[in-house]
Design a protein that fits this description.
2 domains, alpha/beta, binds 5-S-methyl-1-O-phosphono-5-thio-D-ribulose, seven-stranded mixed sheet
Amino acid sequence: MVLQAIKYTRGSLQILDQLKLPHAEVYDDIRTSTDAWHAIKEMRTRGAPAIAIVAALALAVELENIATKGELSQFGEEVKVFIEEKLEYLVTSRPTAVNLADAARKLKKAVEEAAKDDSVSGEAVKEAYIKAAEKMLVDDVQDNEAIGKHGAEWVVKNTEVGKSGQVSMLTHCNTGSLATAGYGTALGVIRSLHSNGSLKHAFCTETRPYNQGSRLTAFELVHDNIPATLVTDSMAAALLRLKGPSERIAAIVVGADRVAANGDTANKIGTYSLAIAAKHHGVKFLVAAPRTTIDLDTQSGEGIVIEERPGKEVTMIKGPRHDGASLDLQNVETVSIAANGIGVWNPAFDVTPAELIDGIITEVGVVEKGSDGGFNLQRLFDDTP
Ligand code: MRU
């Protein structure tokens, strides 16, 4: 069975509630852009590409349902303005991942194009929007499969492959089917290595404070029968010292929320520490992301806004009650794991400087640093209209 975080058909959108995973698989209906805004803010859906696609499709569903009820304006210009306002609102849900802003920009462009002619109907503008939003869902899966293929080839070619012809990999956060329209970016590279017979073992970090690694990536790895081990974030550097046949890490591969023009990369908090540890141990450090995550308008990591989340995500933890023998899935509890009254800093992301990154894996290939020591990311877009 394929893991699906986003279920979409014309007029209907459901998201897998990622706050309930891995213990319960519950889908929530998303009928409007307001529903999507809240689902993104609360992180019931998360991951840079998934956020963008859920937002885009939520508005597609809202428009379709307005039209079905006979409430869509007959004037193209009015529908265009409605769409623009909703997109601007959706972009405010989470600030760091650029994919949502990129999707909004492209969708506005598609709508502008459709509404060029003054006599265009509201229905035609709505159709142009829905077609563009639906294309994003399809394109993301294809892009991820290409990222997986390019990344797996690069790893096999550029790292120390064991006698078995296989490599072990470490990843952080969740970048798989749950974070995208399907397959995943960094986890897509691990999936691709596995399906080629080139993966010895995958390690995933717990990813505090929200535990995307232990709850979501571990869930995906178990689901796909990929040989894998969970470590806490604080164990990663110690793991990189190990030289056993399964434990020798060939490369760390992570996703991204925003890659600046110079290659500085914002990703889940903890990524920066992993990159420093990788450099110290001579382990390759790779970022896997579609071009929709690359923000050429932001020159460096200095310009990336880092979202800060509520302190209770650090001081509290949620899960089903465990009586020592089994889980009681009917009884989900939130418990405190910190001293009452302590101050908390909870940035959701950090920025890894480009100098610590060996390659950026995209759907059109892997970019390495040039002779000037920098990434030339512009060339990834040179053929794009
Ligand atoms: O806060 P999250 O769970 O949305 O953060 C997710 C990440 O940092 C991912 O690594 C990134 O979005 C890439 S997902 C393909």
